[in-house]
Amino acid sequence: MTQASKPVVLYGIPFSQPVRAVIWLLLYKRLPFDLVPINPGSKGDNGSRSPAYLAKNPAGTIPALEEPDTGFVLGEAHAILCYLSNKHGWNDVYPADPQQRAKVDWYLHYHHRNLREASIGLVAPKIRKDLNIPENTQQAARSTFTRALRALESGWLTQSRYLTGAALTLADFAAYMEIGQLQPGFTNLFDFAPFPNVQRWLDEMQQVDGHDDAHVVLSTLGDISVEPPSIETIKHANISALAALKNRGAGLTL
Ligand SMILES: N[C@@H](CCC(=O)N[C@@H](CS)C(=O)NCC(=O)O)C(=O)O
Fold first, then answer.
1. Closest ligand 1 atom to Cα of 15
2. Which of 132, 175, 133, 170 is nearest to 153 (CA)?
3. Dist. CA 197–CA 158, nearest whole Å
4. Which among 61, 76, 117 is the best mutation to test ligand 1's pocket, defined by most ligand atoms within 8 Å of the CB?
5. Which of 18, 192, 216, 217 has most Cβ atoms within 10 angstroms of its Cβ?
6. Quick one: which atom of ligand 1 is closest to the CA of 40?
7. What gap in Å lies between CA 190 and CA 224, rounded to an integer?
8. Which of 177, 253, 164, 159 is nearest to 25 (CA)?
9. For residue range 128-143, what is the model confidence (pLDDT) as tens digits?
10. Is the pTM above the cut of 0.85?
11. What residues does ligand 1 touch, defined as CB less than 6 Å away?
12. Gap between the Cα atoms of 4 and 119, Å rounded
């Protein structure tokens, strides 16, 4: 008799963009998972810089994925998205055709230091005051993000419905986590009016299964464009998000 495999463990919190990308894929694919909350940057117990967590992910960042059955541990959101898709044969979101797959990889590599800068330039200054991100770093991140968004607007998204073609792929999940968080229904930190193709794609992405459950943290937090949220508000948003995931069947280790 074969034993049922244990759910994969995801380390992180829903507030983190790369963690949310993995959460959304897991919800979309209805793969059971346990979420172990790990606080980014903290050296305390359950922190991403604690010795116990660093032993799993030496980079000290969330997310990390662990397979209890094999003891396999993996860091980096995009490596995790690709691994899960490879392992489970999710060729709809990570195509088997080498050229189609390479286009998804193209975006996943491009994402870092480009679209990912939204968090440094726009979101972190509002919610991570403790990081004291210098003004010139914020400005550089904002202009890098805007330039990259223009590449999506006038390149990738003029040619196709989703980022790399007619079908939804891992590239869309990854990109939406950075771009989508800025929408008026969430943090409201960016004006998308000059980006109609991006706006059309954002509207389309909101229809993808799992979107709402993966984004409870942001819908609870709401508009932070005028008033930066208090620590209590951020905590409340994370707790509401964890409760929503539990309702969707995710196990939680608190
Ligand atoms: N390239 C990494 C980035 C992960 C990342 O930046 N995670 C942040 C939270 S959103 C983090 O763990 N920061 C804590 C730290 O650097 O100490 C990935 O995609 O997984």
1. 10
2. 175
3. 7
4. 61
5. 217
6. 14
7. 11
8. 177
9. 888 999 999 999 999 9
10. yes
11. 16-18, 40-41, 48-49, 60-63, 76-78
12. 39
Distance 110 CA to ligand 1 centre (A): 16
Name the E strands within the chain: 8-11, 33-36, 64-67, 72-75, 251-252
Cβ atoms of 105 and 81 within 8 Å: the answer is no
Of 1.20.1050.10, 1.20.120.530, 3.90.1170.40, 1.20.1440.130, the CATH number of 98-211 is 1.20.1050.10
Specify whether the CB–CB gap between 107 and 81 falls below 8 A. no
Report the b/e string of 76-85 with b at 16+ CB within 10 A: bbbebbbbbb
Single-letter code of the amino acid located at 91: N
Q: What is the pLDDT of residues 199-246, one digit of tens each?
A: 999 999 999 999 999 999 999 999 999 999 998 999 899 999 999 999
- Tokens representing 48? 């991403």
- If one looks up domain 8-91+232-252 in CATH, what number appears? 3.40.30.10
Q: One-letter amino acid identity for 248?
A: R
Q: How far apart are CA 111 and CA 6, in angstroms?
A: 32
Tell me what the mean pLDDT of segment 124-130 comes to.
91
Q: For residue 152, which of 124, 186, 192 has the smallest C-alpha distance?
A: 192
DSSP 200-250: HHHHHHTTSTTHHHHTHHHHHH---SSSPPPHHHHHHHHHHHHHHHHHTT-
Q: Where are the domains of the chain?
A: 8-91+232-252, 98-211
Q: Around 160, how many Cα atoms within 13 Å sit in the side-chain half-sphere?
A: 13
Contact assessment for residue 158 and residue 128, using Cβ atoms and an 8 Å cutoff = no
